[in-house]
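User: Last request for today: this protein with copper (II) ion, please.
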Amino acid sequence: MELPETENRGGGAPRHHLTWRRIGGGCSAPASVGPEPEAARGIGRSSAQAVVDAAIVEHTFHVGNLTVERLGQRQVITAVNGQFPGPKVEARNGDTLLVRVVNNSPYNITIHWHGVLQRLSAWADGPAMVTQCPILPASSYTYRFSVTGQEGTLWWHAHVSFLRATVYGALLIRPRLGVPYPFPAPHAEHTLLLGEWWNASSTLVDVERQAFLTGGQPANSVALTINGMPGLHARQMEMHHLRVARANTYLLRLVNAALNYQLFFKVAAHNFTVVAVDACYTDPYHTDVIVIAPGQTVDALMHAGAAPGRYYVAAQVYQSIANATYSATARALLRYEDDDAAGEGEAAKVVKMPALNDSATAQRFYGSLTGLLRDGKPTVPQRVDTRMVVTYGLAIAPCLPAQTLCNRTRGSLAASMNNVSFQLPASMSLLEASRSRSRVGGVYTRDFPDRPPVMFDFTNAAAVNSNMSLMLTSKGTRVKALRYNETVEVVLQNTAVLATENHPLHLHGFNFYVIAQGTGNYFRKRHKRKINLVNPQQRNTIAVPAGGWAVIRFTADNPGVWLMHCHLEAHLPFGLAMAFEKMN
Ligand SMILES: [Cu+2]
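Assistant: Here's the final one, the structure of the complex with copper (II) ion:
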């Protein structure tokens, strides 16, 4: 296994210590120091070898402050290379990526390559304190990994504090040269990154910090965005435009980079054929609405078959939690090339969106997708070595001493998996501790339970919320150790503690098969006929139905420490996470 490169640029060592105190918590030392990957340098894609072999795709990410204006307000955000959203990374199946991250921002930073399997490169995965110590201000770090065996739309984002709100971009993996897509070739493609915008007078790091201190929910965003633009004004400023030519077919690459909201996505007078989700090909699925949870991606073909003109593109919040009221919409504009003669005055066609709590539409989309079977490609494991039942949801925890604004009678909002509220280590990353055996003891324990500690009627809101012992949780850094190549089945069961909600659960290091999903409590015998062991969809992030369950399977064939967590950013510091440890 390759060790990461760590270096300190510009500043002396004392800078590190000062930074740690200011940001709070963290590694006592930089992550393991490894060799500079010199051998890889200078082999650009222009190399003739790239035609037959994999190429090296190199980028440098300068992370720093950027002043932007949105919704009539100027503010300073953290961004990569002065761009918001950040630069697009493009590669082909089999390429090696070499991304040097130079941290000129005042914050600790890491970059996660969301959905990249990181086979034999766990050090490059990116979650802070899981696979690496954060990159300190005035330091740099080089991520090196290959994307062999993967095709489709993925993305990259910061994986520390709430910085991914503005530190994110697309990661597109195309088939090897000369290899076609398993669907009709599109005329062109458009990448649409869906995000959220805060008009915060403070920074996103402060938003997270304030939520921690009070033990409550973080402040809400004020708008959604499409490629960084809210598109709210009639004058169509701050609006992303997509140009299409009539009768052509386009590949839309959608990424939900929003922190806390699932989204409905529609284009007025146009339909889609979904061909992949989370960079895993699907059977073609025809729909007029796409539903996408934070962390997920969707590749969909769209035929430009409408009359010449302009059409609104809209992304609107989908909320599964009861009594939700936040219902933001971002807009972009689809323009036909032949529309230029029509002039600016003509109104664009509007799009009718589902209700913000339309779970039926959401579940129809999420539950209808099936995986595309391809000759010679692996299929779902038929035999299971390890079975787990993991309950998860919101919870209440005693206020920590550091939560100085927390109401000690009420307690702190929290979340848990099998009633363990996950706490990141402070002294060293989980992966580093895992590699240095003797140091595991003080960092984590290998006793994440295979089942909930007590069985109860998980989704019975009245019963659950009148029983304080079911609502209380406690902090722990507990992992589930797996043997090499064992097959794992996990039943993910939402609970009604405080409220049922559709949580998008993301597993690092693996794609998993979603063999069944449904509402209520899962019973293995009763739900047997819902199990799909032929062509289930594969994903890296599953939006499990609110007050429901999903059954996933994967093969533990990738050494490392792999986080599984809710991709609603608000729930990660609450502790809605656990980790799998796969030994060498
Ligand atoms: Cu969640």
